[in-house]
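Ticket 4471: requesting a sanity check on a complex prediction with NAP. Repro inputs:
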Amino acid sequence: MEYVTLSNGVKMPKLGFGVFQISKEDCEKCVLDAINAGYRHIDTAQSYFNEEEVGNAISKCGIVREELFITTKVWIDNYGYEKTRQSVLKSMEKLKADYIDLVLLHQPYSDYYGAYHALQDLYEEGKIRAIGVSNFSPDRLADMVAFNKIAPQVNQVETNPLHQQINAQENMVKRGVQMEAWAPFGEGKNNMFNNPILKEITDKYDKSAAQVILRWLTQRNIVALAKSTHTERIKENLEIFDFQLSEGDMNKITALDTKTSLFFNHQTPEAVDGFVKMIEERKGRI
Ligand code: NAP
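Returned structure tokens:
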């Protein structure tokens, strides 16, 4: 495993196991499979409805807590100082953890300043080892860095070969914020796993498209999250630290950038409408 060091000195494994869209029924087994395969970094969220199952896996896995890096994210409906504080304490209970390694604000809407102030206090109390945001565009991230006592240590954003976020990364590097990639495979959209340019590269290194993508991200110094419910793929996605992509192959992947999300653009009023709907659908469940 390779690591990055966050602006506060905390070490974070460069590859994590993501549990978005893994059902409650499957989650504990998948996380145990991942930890047995060698993952030490697990990424969940209040809105994934599986923090409890991640907690079960953590307590059963036999790995000492200090070796694991656990991330969760605060859901928008839990924003505002007091609600965020209570929700993080509840996440700790569900995760059966005395502390959480990284807590992110999941989305850049509603009262994220109040929410962030609660994270800062929990950080200072030692309940959280690092704090950050997710899906924050360069201007909103600059704002958070400029006007908070503790700058976000991480920003988790969609990053994959078709949406590379090169300018966003430059902005993060400039402000000392570690970039983390969600949907590294774009959830397989646009035939990602069979992209002909990636195929040329996979043949050369005798690696799969998934491995080449994860390696490309880690070589860009981006922390990558990979999700799978299949034991063999979980193992495959971890085998990325025994090869190095050449500069020429890195450049071939750079040329695939469409600078467009495979999902939706967070900076539109329609995206806000979509989240308002999601909040309603999830009311009382988080
Ligand atoms: P992803 O990792 O890009 O793609 C997951 C998909 O790829 C699944 O359908 C999986 O199928 C398939 N897959 C995985 N490994 C494979 C392999 N080696 N070969 C072929 N197919 C493979 O998508 P994601 O789950 O959306 O993103 C990863 C993590 O990022 C999430 O789990 C979550 O922790 C985080 N995330 C965060 C946000 C945010 O807003 N902050 C948003 C989305 C995701 P199987 O499961 O069937 O193997």
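Notes from triage: Strands lie at 3-5, 11-13, 15-18, 41-43, 69-74, 100-105, 128-134, 154-158, 178-182, 223-226. Leaving this open until the requester confirms.
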